[in-house]
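CHAIN AND CONFORMATION:

***
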Amino acid sequence: MGSKMSDGMKFDTGKAMYDLIDPSCLEEFAEVLTMGAIKYDRDNWKNVEPHKYEAALFRHFQAYRKGEMIDSESGLHHLAHVMANTMFLYCHSKMEKE
């Protein structure tokens, strides 16, 4: 039972490559979601009108465009907030189709 690799096969062509997601990006994204879950409740976002997430997304993106990287309330990157709001909008659009 050494550490030598065998000539085994693994067929994963066409599968999502989660290893392409930058770990620090994913971590801060999760921190934004965690902060929201603590502040509002874990799945509260599912009960909020999507237009509110559009507005929040644009507020964070505009702050970033103006050169402000860190959100003063959370201490987290504005683009991590953009990712969270984008996820909420994406999920809302998927729920509408169900």
Summary: The chain has one domain: 22-97. Residues 22-97 form one domain.
